[in-house]
C-alpha cells in the first residue's frame, strides 16, 4: 500500500523536515490514532481509509507486516498502548510474543545501514540497538500495529526511516540503499514458526479452529482461515500447540521448531480433529477494548507477506 493517507500527501504544500501539514486526512483525523484500540474505547469516528484497511486485513491471511513512517530512525514494536495488564516494571507494554517482536525489530535494525547505531535525531533520545517498545517510547492509542496484532492475527512493527519527514527527492536513492537489505531480511522472517492445515477425519479443511501455542493465548484467539490454514510466528524452540474448535476434541502436539528462514519455509504440521458433535462456529472477536484492568494475566498475549507501507509522506506516527 503506497500510502494510507493520500489526502495528507496531496494537501502538503510546503514539505520540509518538520511540516505542519500532511499528518491528517481531509476530515482532520490522524489515521494512526483511528483504529479500534485494545485498551481504551476510541472516540474517533472510523475514517474511510481506516475502514478500507481493516476490510482488506479481513480478506487476506496476512501474517507479517510493517508500516513505514518518518520523523525518527528506529524499529518500534507493540504494544503502543497499555495498562496494568501489559505494562512491566521497566515501563514498557509487552505482548506474550515479545520475544518474536524484539527479534523482528532487531532483524530490521541490524540489517539497516545505520539504524542499529541508535542514531539520535534532533531532540530525540537515543535508541539502544535502534529498536524501541512503542509504549516505552510514547503512548499511542488507536494505532495500526496494535490493531493488526490483536484483531488481524498479523505481527506488525513500525519502521521510522528518516529524521526528516519530507527528505529531498535527490536523497531517495540513498534511502533505498540503506533499507534494501533490511526489507529483504524482514520479509524472510515470514518463515519463522509453524504453519499447516486443520482437517477433519475425512481430510476436509476446518475453518475457525483456534490454533495457539501454550503460554501464548491471544485475547482474540488466532484461528484458521476459510481454507483451514494456520500460521504461528515462533522463534526456534520446543512448543506445545493446541488446536480446538466447537464440536471437536482438542488436539495437543509438542513440536521442536527450527529456524525456517534458512530454508525459506516454516515447519509444516497438519492437525486432524476427531468429530464429537455438531456445534456453532466461534463468534468473531468484537472490536472493543480486550485488555481490561480486571483481565487475568493468563489472558495476556503471549503465506502471504504484507508490507503495509505508509510512506514517508503518509501516516506519520
**Uncertain ranges:** 295-317
Helix-and-strand structural type: alpha/beta
Helix content: 10-25%
Terminus-to-terminus distance: 17 Å
Order of helices and strands: HHEEHEHHEHEEEEEEEE
Q: DSSP strand (E) fraction?
A: 15-25%
Instruction: Note the total helix count.
Output: 6
How does the overall form come out from the CA principal axes? globular
Rounded Rg: 20 Å
Strand order of the largest sheet: 3-2-4-1-12
Mean pLDDT figure: 90
Oligomer: single chain
Tally of strands: 12
Which sheet architecture does the biggest sheet show?
5 strands, mixed
Please tag this protein with its features.
317 residues, alpha/beta, 5-stranded mixed β-sheet, 4-stranded mixed β-sheet, 6 helices, disordered C terminus
